[in-house]
Amino acid sequence: MPLWTLRGLRRGVVTTRYPARPDPSAVLLPTPPVFRPDALTSDLADRLVAVCPSRALGRDGDVLVFDVGACTACGRCRAEAPQAAEDSGEFELAATAREHLIKRIALDGSPR
Amino acid sequence: MTALQPGLAGESGLRDLLTGFGRDGHGGGPVTTLSVPVADLQAAVRRIAAHPGARLADVFASLENPDTDGSPVTLRLVWGLDADRRYLITESLVEGDSYPSLSDIVPGAFTEECEIYEQFGIRAAGGKPLNRVALPPWAGPDWPRLGRAPAEQPKDVHAPHHVGGHAFEFPFGPVRQVAVESLYYGLVTSGEELVDLYLFTWHKHRGVEWRLRGMTPGEALFYVERTEGLGAVGNSWAFAAAVEASLGLEPPPQAMAARAIALELERLYNHAAATAALCQSTGLVIGQAAAEIALERLLRVNAAVFGHRYLFGVVDIGGARADLDAAALRSDLPGAYGELQRAAAALLSTNSFLDRLEATGVLTEEAARRLGLVGPVARAAGLAIDARADHPARPYDQFRPEVAAQDAGDVLARFRVMLAEAAESVRLIGEIGRTAAGPGLALPPGAGPGQPAQPANSGLGWAESSRGESLAWVALDDGGRITRARLRPASVRNWRGFDDACRSQNVFTDIPIIEASFWLTVAGTAR
Amino acid sequence: MNPLPVMAGAAAAWGLAALIALTCGSTRAGIRASCAVSGLGGAAALAAGVSALLSGNSRVVTAGGSVVVGTLQLQATSLAGVFVALLGLIAVATALYAPRYHEPGHTTGLYLGVFNLAVLASLAVLVAGNVVTFLVAWETMALLCYLLILRRPRRSEVAAGAFWFLALSEVGFVAIIAAFVILAAKTHTMQLDLIAARAHLVSGDWRVAAYLLALTGFGFKAGLVPLHVWLPEAHPVAPADGSAFLSGLITKLGVYGIALFGFVLLPGGPAWRGILTMAAGAVTAAIGILYALNERDIKRFLAFSTIENIGIIVTAFGAAMTFLAYGQRLLWAFLLLAGLYHVANHGTYKTLLFQEAGVIEHVTGTRDFDRLGGLAHRMPRSSVITFLGTLGIAALPPLNGFVSEWLIFQGLFQGFRTGSHLVAILIVLAAGTLGLTGGLAVYAFVRGYGIPFLGMPRTRQAAAASESRQPQAGPALLAAACVALAVGAPVMLAGLARAMRTVTGVTLRPVLLPGNLTVIPAHTNFSGFSPTWLTVFLLAVSAVPVLIYLAGRPRGGSRIEPVWDGGIVEFKPRMQYSAMTFSAPTRVMFDALYRPSVSVHRASDDPAGSSGPVHYESEATPIFERYLYRPVIRAFEWLADVVRPIQSGDVNLYLFYVFAAVLVAYLIAAL
Amino acid sequence: MTSQSATGLNVPATSEELRRTVARMFGRSLHIRTLDTGSCASCEQEIRLLAAPHYDLHRLGFFFTPAPRHADLLMVTGPMVRAFETAARKTYDAMPDPKVVVATGACALGGVYQPDPFTHGGVGGTFPVDVWIPGCPPSPLALLQGLLVAVGRLADQVKDLDFALNRTPR
């Protein structure tokens, strides 16, 4: 025990490493969608933007602007266009700047 | 709530109540609507209140024609005739700035009168000083409201919270202890005993009802779920039922079964969370850890079965949307509930814990009836009312829930009621789970191709959320958009019983215990 | 040197001051002159008192007299030395305080004249040589104090308060006369030192009767429970320097009387006599502080605190007599010394607190705790002075209250030396009661200082308070006296020890003060401490955290933020503890004594569950006034009604009464 | 992390610089104060579960504290109701510098509610936010990851995800 205390005193906070191993329950969590650009036509993107209740999707010319921060993972876009959106499985989404959460997805494969 | 055949017991009692008004109410099924002229509204209220098993569930107002300013206001009283298994809505058109006082006859209507004054500017006759409900003290006439601002606001309309004599006001909140909602307590104490307690909930008023106007029911459901996150299924079921009642929809049975399972799962995790909060407030850290283990496993069951820890997105207009993983339900739920059973059994044999709960925060049956309380708080005081039993909707008409009631009315009685309800919920989930339960939607008219637009209509919906009967009333215009939505989660009713329960206490440390035993949310009442 | 002439000088100064005040009291210069002269008299009395302490009893001097009154004899005894010195100090402090406190006016001149005469009468009581002088001086002092309290006669409560004082004073006076008559009859002399010499002649029941009558008579003036009732009635209505004089000195004359009878005129006596006195003192202390905790008026609060401190002094005297009865002469003298030292201390800080109460009343126009608050920022000098006085009276180290109460406790803890278990237990029980009183006193004075001075002002008057033209010199002098009495305790105790040798014949000094400024409580193997070094040590210790803070405070920019209040809109003064809510725990614990009657008016009693204004009142029932004095008063009123028919107003009836009286007298003589 | 440096300037720090400054300032354990500016109570429940045995933030050196005076990190939930803004501003000011603000949940990040007469629609306008944690409600695992990003012990990995399938990640 003293060794650990000494290490703590020297290096500041000493705690268990995190995450020791991936948590099995994470798979159950609802996560924001990930989009398939080549399946995203312009009118499908417009339908997705209309169906999103928390305005996480927007259009900027031929780019689908996806604000992961505003997304509540409610699944309405996945229900609307299963072929263009599916679960990302990503739930560790903390960002140190708001811009990191704004994603720009070019429609049908054209460069961003 | 449809799918209920007329010809109920006690029909005759109801018949003479209605004919007493000289005409039969319109609207078949479990909800009857009566229009009563304002002049003899008080007589009607007196007669209905005298009817056995009658309970004033809600009072709200709405503008008759919203777009013309100065339009008359319709006052609606929702009565739960529990003995007759029917809801009765009385509508009265109020022309001027005042209407006959309701709280003189039914005291439980006072908070609603204050809210109607704030939102619609019409005040109950009798000039009784009112309390602030949703608007902050500095809200001027231009503050957004559902109706119009009161014409001129006399200085003395809001009762001043002045403390006189040998007492002082101990300010607690709105930023309270960690991870607890913002709520302001005004604890008036004489130094030792608690003399009075009042609450300010306007800090969290997000104006959900104001926001829902003009939305389609589908969009509105997103906000109804997020008015009270811990009561998402209960409130959204009530709202969906109201929309279905107004559109005449009939959700498929498997969707209703899925909704019932979600409602019972929500009741389970709420009661587990209440147990954890009770242990935390009495300082029993081991009990809290045990209850939190049970809570976390129940939330994981929710995620496994419906895909969301707090069951958002399960209920949809006309049925249920999320697909139900029955295998995960059968495999994980017993283990999770076993944790809660073990924690509860240990707690019920811990004398130091039980001493803190016994005779703490006593609420008499008379107070519960007078204030119109609902849910576990009312059942613990001896009022055995439960919307699943009194106003059963599918599937509760086949799987009849057994109402757990106590009569001590203290924190221990509420704890026992919650544990009994949790056991009952597991039994119900087991039985309902055996029938086909899964997603399915009855297509709302006009949504599908070639269906005629439904004429403008309104409907009442209800559900027994974990905190008690949650009501919703919706008025749709001919385009199917909402003109007026009234959401009344159970927290709105039960917070007014909280200061009665606290006032019998003379120790400050009992107040968090009482708050944990009520297990209400501020978000639900501030909406 | 003989203190009597110096005292005579002081008396002359006070007479002159009274004359100046009576003649030209309506001008500010007149008031200032009268006070200056009175201050000089005070200084002379202070010097005389100290010299009386040191030089032992002076000769008896006959200062004239008349056929009616008999010979007036004066004698400066060392027992009275402390009291004379205290009288001088209070006179000086009042002389510094009065000019700024009083507005010039005709009644002011009258009042100051009466005040100086009352001080003169008090001096006469202390230097009275024989019974007649003592009684005449005592009655003059009582009547002058009655006029002192009647500063504003037109107000009803002033008349009531003054009348309570006079009524109880007269009842006490009857008991005092009876006690002296017994002594004089038994020792066939009127001269006090001769009575003391022939004390053995007063034997058995007469001795006990005399002592009990003296205890009761002087108990009325000192304020022993249940005879204390006039204190809380008279103090609030008297002006600040008047009530300071009442509490600071007049109650001490009662204590002087008890000490005179207990230690000088009837020194011996059975043990139960001491135990009875100790019990009376302990009960007085406990009940006094409990009632103080329930008061909302500053002056009533300080009046009850006076009762508590008188209780402590009388407990010390009672314990001393008990030790004497068991042959513990050293402890007997030591406890008398400790009691007298507490007299000096209490006289100092209680006068200070009353004068500051007067300042608060002038500045804010109210004496109610719940209408004050936040005065520390608005009256910095007064609050520092009051803080020193509060530290003293709450008996907190290092100030003088702590030293004297420590001495009394050390004396009481040595009850085991009496040899008898029962008495030892009783003495320690008294110590326990004083312990409880000490704790409650600290609690009461945290409330007494905290509510008016700290926190936020509760009313506009409190917010607008400013001490620009308020008197500061008087209380400042007394605060300095408190510190001097604490730091200079060994010097003061040496003087008192010298006095004890003359009064009790026990040489305490070598045991009490073994040198290097330490004080030993009568027996070396028990305990000891040095007040001086304690003060130095405390100052040094308190410097350490200050240095740590100064060294460690963050160099970078620091922000000042308001106190964290949970995010409410704004902190209302009603959100602070008020005086009654602060003392609510004792009201709950001691509700058998208080018997509180609670009245609550709540908007939330409305069945609809609305919330709104709340009014909560809890009044304690005045037990002594209701269950002791009112029946007595009603009995006298009934008696008066019964007797009234005698005055039917018919002359023949009166002639018949005369005839009947003469006949009866003749028959008795004929027996 | 923007912190009120002595000069009062909000100095935006790059992530590397953030890790060093945070390590220096919060060498010891970190105390968290939560603030509900109008949430629906499910975010509060998830934050409470951080102290539950499954997640237990104490093992990572985080502790809850009710007093903002002793707090280093402010966890804000809810869409910042306008009526609550004075209390929120007071809580933020009551915390000593240096302090970290973590916006928690879609409401606080401007998702569920849009700016309107009742709410500001997000907490970005009231506080200088350092770490944003999306989710409705964000699970305790997401919260733990957010806290560790706030103290620089985990990297901000979301900035490298582009949420587009079969696109060669940059």
The gyration radius over C-alpha positions of chain C equals 27 Å
Within the largest sheet of chain D, what's the order of strands?
Answer: 2-1-3-4-5
What is the helix fraction of residues of chain C, given as a range? over 70%
Average pLDDT level of chain D: 84
DSSP strand (E) fraction of chain D? Answer: 5-15%
Identify the most extensive interface between protein chains.
Answer: A-D, 43 and 49 residues
Order of helices and strands of chain D: HEHEEHEHEH
| Strands side by side in the biggest sheet of chain C | 1-2
Shape type of chain D: globular
Number of helices of chain C: 27
- Count of alpha and pi helical runs of chain D: 5
Tell me the distance between the termini of chain D. 25 Å
Quick synopsis:
Chain B has 527 residues and is of the alpha+beta class. Chain B is built from 17 helices and 16 strands. The longest helix of chain D is centred in the N-terminal third of the chain and has 11 residues.
Features of this protein?
A: 112 residues, 3-stranded antiparallel beta sheet, two-stranded antiparallel ribbon, 3 helices, 22% helix, B: 527 residues, alpha+beta, 4-stranded mixed beta sheet, 17 helices, 16 strands, globular
Please, could you describe this protein's structure?
- The complex is a heterotetramer of chains A (112), B (527), C (671) and D (170).
- In chain B, 40% of the residues lie in helices and 17% in strands.
- Chain B is globular.
- Chain B has helices spanning 11-19, 41-50, 110-120, 208-212, 217-225, 232-247, 253-281, 285-306, 326-348, 351-357, 365-371, 375-380, 387-390, 411-434, 490-503, 510-518, 522-526, and strands spanning 31-35, 54-63, 73-81, 86-94, 98-99, 123-124, 163-165, 168-172, 184-189, 194-200, 315-316, 319-320, 440-441, 457-465, 468-476, 482-488.
- With 527 residues, chain B is an alpha+beta fold.
- With 671 residues, chain C is mostly helical.
- The longest helix of chain C is centred in the middle third of the chain and has 36 residues, at 329-364.
- Chain C is globular.
- Chain D contains 5 helices and 5 strands, in the order H-E-H-E-E-H-E-H-E-H.
- Chain D has helices at 15-25, 42-49, 85-94, 105-108, 140-150, and strands at residues 30-36, 62-64, 73-77, 100-104, 131-133.
- The longest helix of chain D is centred in the N-terminal third of the chain and has 11 residues, at 15-25.
- The chains are: A alpha+beta (112), B alpha+beta (527), C mainly alpha (671), D alpha/beta (170).
- Chains in contact: A-B, A-D, B-C, B-D, C-D.
- At the A-D interface, strand 1 of A face helix 1, strand 5 and helix 5 of D.
